[in-house]
Amino acid sequence: MSATAPAVPPASAGGTPPGSRPSGGSAAGGDTDPRLRARRRRRLVAALFLLPALLLLGALVAYPILFSVGRSLFDATGTRFVGADNYVEMFRDPTTLKAIRNSAIWVVVAPALLTGLGLILAVLTEKVRWATAFKLLMFMPMAISFLAAGIIFRITYEQDPDRGVLNAVAVGVHDVFADRPAYPGARAREEAGGTEVTEGKDGSYGTAADLSPGGTLALGVVGVPPGEVPAEAEPAAAPTADGGSGDALTGTVFLDFTPGGGGEPGRIDEGERGLPGMTVQAVRDGKVVGETTTAADGSFRLTGLADGSYAVRLPASNFAEPYGGVSWLGPALVTPAIIGAYLWIWTGFSMVLIGAGLSAMPRDVLEAARMDGAGEWQIFRRITVPLLAPVLTVVFVTLVINVMKVFDLVYIIAPGPVLQDANVLAMQMWLVSFGGGNDQGLGSAIGVLLLLLVVPAMIFNIRRFQRSRR
């Protein structure tokens, strides 16, 4: 049986033999397409323009991150591999744990306050005619470096009221409502005309309970600088017995110091002056039964006393140190004080960004709500805030990222003795690595922790930008 040859279709006139390529194509599968060549050229040009930025980004961002991760796995010398020991040590170190706690306080408090203040100021600014000047004034601190701002607030928070503005205000307000001590730092003589004077546990000075109505007493006081003796002080008058009523104790409180030397301690000598304004109390059985204030010559008279024995006391309020204000930079308030400085710098930034979002809001919605009878508070709570939610979120997350890296203000404002109480992660990383710790392995581990804490906020912000662009 013979094989049958396969049928070959006839070639059409002007056609292409089977299996051959179209005459318009090429062996490269369309490499000669002009649109494809233009697209490849654009990609090449874009890559050439991006290459310097990518190199810079790699040198300043990618390489330091990778190097820090690798360095965190080695010891302080950088020669011995220790694995995760630095990370374990980081969470065992009380100083680092305090820095983490303070950083958490910063993240919770500062962005929330800044966003709230920015929102309130942005809304209120729309109600005034001088809004532009106010915005400019609020934004000006952003032009000041953190170094200069730290120096400003370090002086502002000074404990000495003569230097610290806040304490000068605090002392002024306090002195309006409370009397200043008459003679701060002074003390009474141990003997007053043969009567022993003792110091109490509360800083007061008193005699023994052996004085009766009709008696006299001269109480000498020392430790009063001549320049602090009141101008109205007159020469001390020798105490005289009560004029016959029999219900009073009389005496004199004087500065027991004779100009030019000489004189006898405990006695009123010529040239010695009385101390006016000194509070004197009569005490019986531990209770104050009489009180008076010395005159210009230091004399006093305690009246209305029944028969019996009394002690005379100069209360501690006469000798207490004057009110010195608030210890803003003490261990308890140093972190809130530094956050206050941070608010001063960044409130303008928050206000301007939120104000830009506020100006883009549809006004017809607000007018419709007012026409429906909604009050300003209802409009703010139910319309303004919801419409500004995307802007508020961006501002809040941006500030969270920023406060995680705060360093300058803490380093400059916090005094040395309380630096550890104000410590934050960025500060601890520097202190461990270069500020005396000289352990760059542990410092790199803290830096990696800081990076891991910042990255989620950055990712969230980027996704917000992408969603808003879509």
Q: What does this entry look like structurally?
A:
This protein is α+β, with helices and mostly antiparallel strands. Among the domains are: about 95-165 and about 330-440, MetI-like fold (Orthogonal Bundle); about 185-320, Immunoglobulin-like. It is built from 13 helices and ten strands. It has helices spanning about 35-70, 85-90, 95-125, 130-140, 145-155, 165-175, 335-360, 365-370, 375-385, 390-405, 410-415, 425-435, 440-470; strands spanning about 185-190, 190, 195-200, 205, 215-220, 250-255, 280-285, 285-295, 300, 310-315. The strands form two sheets. It has a six-stranded antiparallel sheet with strand order 2-3-4-10-7-8, with no helix packed on it. Strands 1-5-6-9 form a four-stranded mixed sheet, with no helix packed on it. α1 (about 35-70) runs antiparallel to α13. The longest helix is centred in the N-terminal third of the chain and has 38 residues, at about 35-70. The relative contact order is 0.13. Mean pLDDT is about 85; it is low at about 1-15 and about 20-30. It is a multi-pass membrane protein. Keywords: Cell membrane, Membrane, Transmembrane, Transmembrane helix, Transport. This is ABC transporter permease subunit.
